[in-house]
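User: I've been going back and forth on whether these two constructs are worth ordering. Before I decide, could you fold them both?

Assistant: Sure. I'll take them in the order you sent them. The first construct and its structure tokens:
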Amino acid sequence: MKVLMFGWEFPPHIAGGLGTACYGMTKGLAANGVDVLFVMPSASGDEDQSAVKIINASDVPVDTMSTSVDEFLGKVQFVHIGSNMVPYVDPQDFTTMVEEERKRQIKSFRIQYGQKYKFSGKYGANLMEEVARYAMVGATIALQHKDEIDVIHAHDWLTYLAGIGAKQLTGKPLVVHVHATSFDRASDDKIDTRVYDLEKKGMEAADKVIAVSDLTRNIVINKYGISPDKVVAVHNAVDFSGRENIEVERGVEDKVVTFLGRVTYQKGPEYFIEAAAKVLKRCPHVRFVMAGNGDMLNRCIRHVARLGISDKFHFTGFLRGKEVQKMFALSDVYVMPSISEPFGISPLEAMQTYVPSVISKQSGCAEILKYALKVDFWDVDAMSDAIYGLLNYPAIAALASRCGHDEVNALKWTNAAAKIKKVYESTMRK
């Protein structure tokens, strides 16, 4: 079986858990006899291709001309970034203006046929434009490999349009993989409707939808109106190969409690800060670390200052690779207070290094982890009690450390990939 897979990132150059999951998944699929062609916007050339063949979309010219492609181009115009909000324009003029802009956008895309796009592969201001162009390149690649592939697999909203185009032009079944939704990234009244529209279109066009947890599966069904028969939950795993046992010198006698992840609304960083302040009132010989970056970082720094705990609270910025492993080696407790977490790989990484973990009940990994302490993200009293207990009761910490380590080591990507392969097979039988 051969799969054409669309993803936005792949190790070692990743911004979060999506690339890590894709890496582990492709290795697991290879172990299950599935060959993967992995298309990413901008490959650096140093990606691990031992279990996957990487296609760099930046190296592929858009040279496919057909009626189907023209139809496809007509469907991608809505994702173009930019605002049509103009004051003092009546409804008729506004409609005319929008239609002219739509035609201009489609024309600009057509002009680029035969050219290569140099994708950044980042998440910058022109992200929507890159998503649309990536879709066109993806359609070209799909046609080039039409006779080789059995299934198309697209990861998260950034690649759904590419998956839709590939399915339209090849007739191959499409599986979309939901690692997060708009409702995980923001509150219900603040979601990006452009992203939501892309997510919904991808899920509706797919033959099967894979969600990373039952939590995410329920969101897909209830918030996007997708039939339950079409949505399958497959929990993520963790690939620990290549990990080193890192020894570090702490330099301080204080215990260390760590938050590691994007400093955004979704991850609940302010709840971690509030819990830290409560712990420090009971147990002053503790250091709290927030490792990560994001749009709430400055706000969190100010919050720490207002609470008067700056001398016990440290911000490291974004960590990657061995820096993450070193941070876990320095930690006595790991905390993931996410408001909404489709799965959450970082607690598994912490527990694999014998770090006892406190996680929010509003996370996908809470469905499968027995030896992590679980609290509601908003209950900072319960969160602080859990942290305090792990810091001050060695027997509890030792049990969580030992059993947690054994628990996550049993979560293999080969097992998760076997379930994904069955999803592929179900689409091919239709």
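The second construct, handled the same way:
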Amino acid sequence: MSHQLTRTLTELLPQIQGYIYPNEIEVHWGLLIVVYPYITGIVAGAFILASLVKVFNVKEVQPLYRLSLLTALSYLLVAPLPLLSHLGHPERSYEMFLTPQPSSAMAMFGFVYAWYLMAVLLIEIWFVYRTDMIAWSDEESGAMKWIHKVLALFSRDRSESAVRFDHKALKTITIIGIPSAFLLHGYVGFIFGSVKANPWWSSVLMPIAFLFSAIVSGVALVILLYMVITPLTGGKINMKCVDKAVDFLFYVVIVDFTLEFVDFIHRIYQSEEEIKILSEMVMSKLFMSLVIIQVLLGMVLPLGIIGVTKIFKKRFTLNEDLRKMLYFISVLLIQFGIFTMRWNVVIGGQMFSKSFRGLTTYKMEITGIEGLIYTLVLLALPLVILAVLMKILPPWKEMREEEDIEGGAPGVIRAPEGRSLTLLKALDVL
């Protein structure tokens, strides 16, 4: 053990700049803690995008409604895994429910998570798909017939009164879900912002910045998924929908960028003796990830691309394929920018010593629980879950809505794998 410690210190010491205490060499929070706020942010952002339809009546983004809900659910199911993996012994996680500790923000996450999953997201998805699952169970056979029967809780009522109740319930749940989504992700920013001993984290604006960056990441990801999935399933991208969603994304990114800039200025004025070491960290250790990737590539460049596209779209007839390409590049860059922002917050906050005299270096592991491979698996897992969910609960009703109106028979929704689902117009309330 002593020999191993000596060898580790020998490898790390040449990378240390300035004077720090030996117990400050190790960075305790690695990739898993970076992934966690990134995933929860997508959950909150995707739900906010869905709420534009039900609460704010933005009908243009209707094709993204079901996809947003399924995306939120897919990422929510994976959200606890980074924390549980990092803490170890996930089999003991049930104990936080048996012995609740209100004073622990991390422990209370379990209750917030359970509330959001069981009382908000699953119930809303059930009401969204209830009448469709009844129709599917009538037309299908075999395993899928029974899957939809069970998921519909053997409900058979498709009367107008039942549909009206579903519609009212959806709006109510969505209204409840908006602050719940904010709470789910906002508390992460609260945890970082409340660490007063760390000037990189300690900021009253941290929870707000986290919330708006969450909206940005969720909306951008849903747009990205929609633009990828729709052509792969033989559908046509609804550009009216994409234009509206990108417009919303554009303004949210502006707010997010402004908040992060104000937060940075606030740190400069708040940090007195710490400003020297923080400036050195930004200009050396975090220059590529913060200045180049997060700010320039993840915010400024997408804002410029979308802004120019908006101007040309209004004044000239901008080629639709060109718009698709520019939007795709923008939302992809935004995803990288938001993930890098989480990296800069988590890793950056551990790169300087408590003495404010030196910098450390984070050495990423490749294998193991804290390694890159496991992290990539966690990032890919929600997409696998989403693929399964879309197989069971196809979101094509809204995604193909305009296509059906233009070229198909009224009330006929074309589902994947050649299935045709006849739905009564009176039931089409979503």
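Notes on the second construct follow. Residues 259 and 265 are 10 Å apart (CA to CA). The first helix runs from residue 2 to 12.
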